[in-house]
Amino acid sequence: MTKKNTARWTAKYPFDPLSKEYLKSIALDVDEYFSEDLIHIMEYAYDRALLMKTRKAPVWKNDEIEAISYFLAVLIVRGTDNRYLYWMFADSESKRAYKLLLFEDNFAIIDLVNRLGIDIESYGREFGIPFLEYVKITSRFSSPRWKAYYYRVNNGYVVIDKRRLARIISELVKDIVIDDIERITGIPNKIRVYSDRLLHDVRDILEKIRESQEIREVLTTKNREMYPPCINWMMQNIGVGLPHAARFTLVTFLGKMGYNTEEIINLFSRVPDFNVERTRYQVEHILGMRGGRKKYSVPSCKTLRSYNLCFPDDICKGIKHPVQYISRAKKVKEYKAKR
Amino acid sequence: MEYYKKYYINNIEKIVGSIRKIESREIAYIDFDGIMYRHIALSKGDFGEWLISQLPRDLYHSSSYYLFPDRPIEDKVWRGGDLIFDIDLDHIPTYTPNFIWLCNKCNAVFKKEASICEQCNSKTRKIHVPRMNDLEIAKKETFRLLDAIYKIMALPVDETQIYFSGARGYHVHIYSDVLTTIDTRTRIEIKDFITLDGFDIANMHYLNRTYIERIIGDIQKQRKEIYQYFNNSDINLVLSLYRSMNKIKMFREKLQRNRRLRNKINNYVREIYGIHIDGVVTTDISRLIRAPYSIHGKTGLIKKSVEYDSLDGFMPYRDAALYNEEVLVKVLYLPNIIWGEKEYEEAYDVEMKLPLSLAIFLVNRGLAYDTRRV
Questions:
Q1: Which of A30, B117, B192, B338 is the most buried (most CB within 10 A)?
Q2: Of B192, B203, B207, the CB nearest to A159
Q3: Residue A55 burial by CB count (10 A; 0-12/13-18/19+): exposed, middle or buried?
Q4: Which residue of A has its CA nearest to B153?
Q5: How do residues A291-324 score in pLDDT, each as one tens digit?
Q6: CATH superfamily of B2-85+136-194+280-312
Q7: How far is B1 from chain A (nearest CA, A)?
Q8: Structural domain of residue A148, as residue ranges?
Q9: Which CATH number fits domain B323-374: 3.40.5, 1.25.40, 3.30.450, 3.30.420?
């Protein structure tokens, strides 16, 4: 690559190991970015960190400044000492990379992925990614459309198109950015001023997150009309016998809804092979009262699908966890009542 | 017990040699009173002596490796684990188990359900009896699994070991470092890929026509299962859907609107094209698995390793059975079975000489008893 190309590439993909060498060669001492001439670069980097909130598309005039702004933004974010912001910054950087990658040619993408340690192959216009790498990365995605069986898999390679590969790379980018942030120790005080400003400017987002976590804690009900279809299916079929995974899900869910052990055991008394003592033991174990005292959480929609226990209705669209269904169902009910 | 002791004394090396990283595994066993002991840690050197002194009826090790294998599960500190697939007849839908009903008093045998003996009106007990070719069904499924592992997913062949499970199926252990540290979520993805759990035809990617073309192929070949899942109008609909459009995208979209047909197709794909494994064994990283070359407490057979090339000719009742000296037993019921090199005809309520391993197999099932003990 020519020097100009390297600058352009680094501006686009500062997380690439190749870019990091270039970044090192052009970076000045942090102090120097606080001089009158260069403070605009500091401001630019701040805006980049703030992309987590503003979500603007990446457009820039100067490749060198764009490249260096990544490095400075990482410092600012690290200075907040807020892991949630690390994650949000990584997420916005990952989305930024995704948008840019869609315009790269296939060879450039293949080289990049190879540098990230994944041996990728060209399959005509598509790409082949090693099966194990594919499932490792996509296991984090909640959309069922990423399941490996929806794609062609040959000789250990999953065949995907450019858009999907870009999405996979962007997921890797998150890890790299978080790693870049966490590797930094010792933040200059001058940077911390920007970090505090960032914390101040995103306080509404942090507040919203706190609230939604609280709501999730509070919303429990024993009204079965508000339960998701999977749970209702399990309730209806207790008497005919449920697979192990379904019993487990039901106990964790009812526990979360505030049922006590006795109430749950009563429900299970309709099981064909019911045994009070054994049921009590298992219920108490799952609810964390016994054994390892580990309280098991309610399985996600993804897990339930994997056990063939998912029977979605309209309210289920877009939710990732059976417990989320309740607040949705409540809203729908209120909406209907108004009309 | 003597049978176990003799076997274990002669085979300690083999067992220790087959359990990789033995000192990092949790060892567990069930004794002859049926009590289970867990969270045992042993070094390679101590294992042999321990085995002979405890003499387990069933011996297990964790599929995972830990920093502290003897601590409770939350404190073990996970360091990785083999990826294990378990093929068991009970999880294969085309397999239907075979039972007899044996009278508790007069030893009469009934092949149809009879809770009361028709001859003496006493209670009967239901006993599972293997058919001659049952294990061939499991073997066929194992070949399908190995095909997926080697040819499709291309997981490391040279770091894979196939075992006869000691009872009603096969285990495949993959112990390559490239995948021992994958987490449960990734293991679930691998399991789902194999079983097709959660599959929905409406989500197929446009680059992949595999399953749709396989269904069309099955219809054209008039595969008999097609008629168990689809009626004639379904079949015509699938064919016309496929013929009338060359874009898989449109095929999917049409199915999105026809929920009934979509469900039928999904069930067909999952049950016919999915490979039937016990998924929990693959996904649960705190699971125990029978130790290689140990004796299965219920059958007296050995969990024995089988090379891929000899799997086709592998006969569990010959190749995983122990000593062949003959003993005299009282047989209540002997099914038609090939054991060792010999075929035995069906037999009822008779005293006969049988190879020790077959005698144990029958005794453990309640189909025979040792005449000396009564």
A1: B192
A2: B207
A3: exposed
A4: A156
A5: 655 678 889 998 899 888 888 888 888 788 898 8
A6: DNA primase, PRIM domain (3.90.920.10)
A7: 31
A8: 3-210
A9: 3.40.5
